Amino acid sequence: MTQQNILKYFFVISISMVFAYCVKQYNPPVLQAKNNYLVVDGFINSGSNSVTAIILNRTRSISDSVTATNPELNASVQIVSDDGSAYPLSETGNGNYQSAVLNLDNSKKYQVKITTSNGHKYSSELVACTKTPSVDSLTWQQTNGVNIFLFAHDPSNSTHYYKWDYTETWEYKSPLQGSFVVKGDHIFVADATDQIDSCWQSDLSTNILTGSSIVLADDVINNAPIATIPQNDEKIFVRYSILVRQRGITADAYKYWGIVQKNSQDRGGLFDLQPGQLVGNIHSETDLTEPVIGFINASSETNERLFIDHREVTDWNVGSDTCANLTIDQDPDDFSHYYYTDPDYTFFHYVSPSGLAIAQKICLDCTVRGGTNQRPTFWR
Amino acid sequence: MTVLKNNYYKNRLFTIVCLLALFSFKVTAQQKQLISGTFNNLNFLQFADAIESKYDYHLYFDTSETNVLQVNVNAEGLTIQQLLDKVLQGTSLHYAVDTLNRVFVTSRFAIQTTFPDNATARANDSAADKTITAEEEEPEQQLQVSIENKLIRVGTGMVNGQGNATVAGYIRDRKSGEPIIGASVYLDTPRIGANTDQYGYFALTLPKGYHTIHASATGMKDTKRQLMLTGNGKINIDLDEYVASLKSVVVSTTKANVKSLQMGANIVSIKTIKQIPVVFGEADITKAVLTLPGVTSVGEASNGFNVRGGSVDQNLILFSDATIYNSSHLFGFFSSFNPDVVKSIELYKSSIPEKYGGRLSSVLDVDIKDGNTKKWSGAAGIGPLTSKFYIEGPLDKNKTSVIASVRSTYSDWILKEVPKSAYSNSTANFNDFTLRISHTINAKNSLYLTGYLSNDRFRLDKDTLYSYTNKNANIKWKHIFNNKLFMVNTGGVDYYEHDISSEQNDVNGFKLAFNIRQYNFRSDFIYTPNSNHKITFGLTSIYYKLHPGSFTPEGGKSLVSPNILESEQALESAVYLGDEYTVSQKFSVNAGVRYSVYNYFGPHSVNSYAAGIPKDSTTITNTVNYASEKIIKTYTAPEVRLGTRYSLSDNASFKLSFNTTQQFIHLLSNTTTISPTDIWKLSDPNIKPQSGYQVSLGYYQNFKSNTIETSVETYYKRTKNYLDYRSGANLVLNPHIETDVIATKGEAYGIEFLIKKNTGRLNGWLSYTYSRTLLKSNDINQGEIVNNGAYYPAAFDKPNNVNFITNYQFSHRYNISLNVVYSTGRPITLPIAVFNSGATTGLFYSDRNAYRIPDYFRTDISVNIDGNHRIHQKFHNSWSFGVYNLTGRQNVYSVYFIQQNGTAKGYQLSIFGTLIPFVTYSIRF
User: Fold this and answer.
1) A299 Cβ partners below 8 Å, 6+ apart?
2) What's the start-to-end Cα distance of chain A, in Å?
3) I need a labelling partner for B685 at 20 to 30 A (CA). Which of A281, B134, B361, B609 fits?
4) B781 by DSSP, 3-state: which?
5) Are B846 and A30 a contacting pair at CB < 8 A?
6) CATH architecture of the region B265-924
7) Which segment, B506-510, B582-586, B695-699, B728-732, is predicted with the most confidence on average?
8) Mutation site, B837, B846, B894, B901, interface A, largest A CB count within 10 A
């Protein structure tokens, strides 16, 4: 090795050490701890003839590999008013608790009291009832996909802060449209209850949506962005519907949900965000230092539904699935029997004189992709 | 009696032999003739005649030296010695009486310690009535002795005049002609002294008459001058470098810490900086600053530093009065100043001179050498990552000198050589250039021209290229009106820009850029009416032009739509006045005021927000577009700078200081270190200036004749309007930053211990700092109540810090340096749980900054080997070998979480995952 080479080698080694910076798992005790904090979701529905639903969950430790929800079972939950009247909620499973149909007195303040199965007591702060104005309209516009906006106003000028969530439902069709359905090893002609050509799928909003009219002279919400459907998304291949639920919330709740929204965004990379501190209005009575996640408001709920048909959007490319079908022999004496055993395939149509055309289930049976073949009652 | 070196006394051998004889007989062989009589209103000649006529004594003297004297003595049975003691009392004259009753009266030597030099005795005769500027051009050794014993007459007045006169001049390094900063010039009794300023200039006001003034400076040999001060005049003093003495590797400025009025000021000589082992063996200014008590950084490879709980943007970094916005290379691996051209650095952390303003925490004053005025010299250094070269010399001897340096990396080449690495697509390079030209027009006027340029480009295995640039230029004109008053005018331009660009994806190619330019002018005056006062006053003005962000397409096919934020303009002006008042030998006061005026002006559009609720994009009530040059908002504020010193003894003092400061420019950073994506923001109607005050108390004591310095300083600080960030703040390309920040109230306190040994084979220092920095946001109108409105630790709060820096000299050629650093890990906010709310999955975070990353600990060692030490050889070379992070500890630099599929995984990043050996070779000529 010449001296020059030695030098070069040395340089190379030192630079690689520098840039071979070391990344290790970071898992201090605080992250390994269980950190099973109570998460209270829902609101006190102060509307007339309304049911209040509260969902209780536990947080997971961030090092948990399990991502399933962690419901809090066997808790006792009740709505309590400032004059002490209590309205119990009954457990309906999976951490869901539901009240009877109630007509709460909107002049009173309410809170939620929870006693978990381990005996810990929690309560939300007493809140006044907010009367939620109705949604004036939902509109949409097609620019880089379809954007849906909400309009509302409160003539009494008292709501100011709004929270929305929605359920989207869309109809989609199997790429291959048949008129039969296979049940067991028999072929039937499909009817509305068991057809597999058209399905409806639903999704809940994953974003936190809030809006405010606080700086405006009037309590008016104009063009609040609710949802965006990317151009050529399957949701408007046939027909799409969105049900937006609206609730008036308090200024504190508005802030709270803003932080939830920011904390649910993915982070990392160059522009790290300042982590948000979540301070809700539910406290543990047993251990004052125990964090509780959730913000309980009392309000009525209004909603509005919008439909968008494929014919209304422009240049919405449905795309084409490659769905080959193949023909198999069929017993000419028993046309109603289906013997083909590959579970990925199903019957498509008859081929004369004595064959069956079959195709992949995913091409024929829309329920395979998770939707329901039952037309929703609101669908029109 | 000093030991003599034969070589230069050979030609005076005769004199020496005579004198040795004379001294040896002095005590033993005197005849006791007693003298009586009245000698009134005689000059010395008449007095001598009177003695010689009556007694068996012969007096030998030089009338030019003795005519200063007026003899008024009543003698009754005095020996000649007793009589002469009376007669010569209070003068510089010495006498000797030999066995033959010959009396030698002379001013040219001190009998007890030094030897006479009769060669220069006559020189003063002709010059007696002129102002003498003692330009010292003789060979150094000989000169050292001769000039120290020469009586230099300064001024034109009468010899026995009354009142005070001012002597002023420059203190320079004899070898290079380089002015010496912070040298002290002082009288022993009465204790009157001054320190030289950044030009090596001093002014001392003294009673007229005879004085011995001493001059000393770090790393230089002490010297003295004997003056006969008869009026205002000049004296320039050249100091010699302390070359070979092992006992004074770093010589302290005499009792500087105890005597100086400044508290919380640390001066670090470039020599010390060069001894601190650092990664890659590059002497590094920022790293040296980080070893001082009260100074921390958030991690290695982080830009900037935190002083006494201040944020990184609260430090004013001046490179010969040019403001440097990003003082590091390669994301903080190197400081951006080439140590070869740096003369000294000074960090003010508690009593900030009233001359400086605009930053809350500290001023780091980095001074450049003026260039050798006598001969050309230079140095070259080769390290594993960088090479550097500098040269200095006279363009016109003793009038114009230049110093220029260049430093560059070859890391690009190295990255390509790394076999099969992920780094072959990476680039990392930087360079910097410094130029300083100093020109002496005449004795009263000098010009200094400084230019600085640094560039960084960095891409690490991604398509994104980061780059940033500092460009600075300024010119200074120093004018001396008279010995009591001088002025320095500085005008310059400072520029900083950074950008991030990506062209990997044709369609998305972009460039995100930021820049700030400032034009500054300042005029500083120093007036020294007498030795008890040093009055400084002046004015300063900075015009800012800031482009907060532009996002533009890069590459021909890019479809990125440009987004360019409006530029910001402001003018920051200040006038100041200060006085350093020596009340008594024990007590001195430094009082200063500074009045700042800040104007923010158009063109710019400004949002107004609804009152009584947090600023938010939804609470904008109005937006006003202001025209060009229209003043949008003015902030004014007085600032107070107070410092006092009380000496308990020669070796111990107390100091107390109180300071208020204002800062009109904010750094917006969503990481804890300065990163090239950080932007600066000028105060505007919605973002108020930061302000703060600090009270600081210190006790200083030196031991073992000032070779060991110790100090304890405590401080308490409050700040207002320091910006922290709201949850999920977005700082990039945000036209309304005010909706994403929180103006906090801050509190910081701490105690700093320092023990420092300046001399000896073993030297260095040990410091321990306990400090806290807490912020509070309890006003919901600021946007967010953090941690329930309680005080929470700032992101750079690191309570315990220990620094141990030491250097041991085995011999002239070998020395070893050791560096040990410990600090508490900095605070972070951790996600501690994952929750589901409806269909939303989110992270639940702890209180802000409730947890800390693991503690930081690092040990570095280096061995420095100098070539031989012959002074007159052409080239001197030296090697430095060492290991950075000797223990290989994986210090955590940052912690981050990657969130996917409802889980989040934590990772810790260590910049230096192992120990790093280095070697550096440098050559000096």
Assistant:
1) A43, A44, A45, A46, A47, A129, A130, A131, A132, A247, A248, A249
2) 83
3) B361
4) helix
5) yes
6) Beta Barrel (2.40)
7) B695-699
8) B837
Residues of chain B with CATH 3.55.50.30: 6-106
Per-residue pLDDT for B45 more than 50? yes
CA distance B72 to B740: 84
In 3D space, the residue among B918, B855, B919, B915 whose CA is nearest the CA of residue B887 turns out to be B915
User: A-B interface: how many C-beta pairs under 8 angstroms?
Assistant: 229
- Dist CA B838 CA B821 (whole Å): 49
Q: Phi and psi at residue B866, in whole multiples of 5°?
A: -90, 150
What are the C-alpha distances in Å from B331 to residues B45, B310, B317, B379?
76, 20, 17, 26
Measure in Å the smallest separation between the Cα of B825 and chain A Cα atoms. Answer: 13
Hunting for tokens 């920051």 — which residue is that? B572
Hunting for tokens 């995100």 — which residue is that?
A: B512
Among A21, A64, A265, beta carbon nearest to B909: A21
Question: B-chain residues within 8 Å CB-CB of A291?
Answer: 844
B604/chain A closest Cα distance in angstroms? 23
**Residue among B418, B424, B727, B892 with most chain A CBs within 10 A, to mutate:** B727
Q: How many whole angstroms separate alpha carbon A255 and alpha carbon A261? A: 10
Distances (CA, A) of B778 to A164, A229, B787, B791, B845: 29, 40, 9, 9, 19
Q: Provide CATH code, domain B118-242.
A: 2.60.40.1120
Nearest to B837 among A39, A266, A276 (CB): A39
- Amino acid, single-letter form, for residue B701: Q
User: How much of chain B exceeds pLDDT 70, in percent?
Assistant: 80
Residues of chain B with CATH 2.40.170.20: 265-924
CA–centroid distance for B492 within its chain: 20
A25 and B908 within 8 Å at the Cβ level: the answer is yes
Q: Which of residues 856-875 of B touch A (CB under 8 A)?
A: none
3-state secondary structure of B637: strand
Amino acid at B759: T
Which residues lie closer than 8 Å to B97 by C-beta, 6 or more apart? B26, B30, B57, B80, B81, B103, B104
β B510-530/B485-502 pair status = antiparallel
In this structure, the number of other CB atoms found within 10 A of the CB of residue B59 comes to 21
Question: In this structure, which amino acid lies at residue B868?
Answer: N
pLDDT digit string, tens, across residues A257-280: 888 887 776 554 434 556 777 888
CA-to-CA distance for B580 and B642, rounded, in angstroms? 10
Q: Each residue of A33-54: pLDDT tens digit?
A: 778 899 999 999 999 899 999 9
**CATH code 2.60.40.1120 region(s) in chain B:** 118-242
Angle at A209 between CA A205 and CA A212, to 5 degrees: 160
Using the Cβ of B274 and the Cβ atoms of chain A, whether some distance falls under 8 Å is answered with no
Question: Rounded distance, CA B439 to CA B401, Å?
Answer: 7
CA torsion angle B350 B355 B361 B362 (round to 10): -80
Question: pLDDT band at residue B425, thresholds of 50, 70 and 90?
Answer: low
Angle at alpha carbon of residue A88, lines to A85 and A92, rounded to 5°: 165
Provide the shortest C-alpha distance from residue B570 to chain A (in Å). Answer: 28
For residue B281, what are its two tokens?
A: 């063996």
| Residue B784 distance to chain A (closest CA, Å) | 9
What CATH architecture is B6-106?
Answer: 3-Layer(bab) Sandwich (3.55)
Q: Is it the case that residue B15 has pLDDT exceeding 70?
A: no
Terminal CA-CA length for chain B: 37
Cα separations in angstroms, B820 against A14, B719, B766? 21, 32, 9
Contacting residues of A for B421, CB less than 8 Å apart = 16
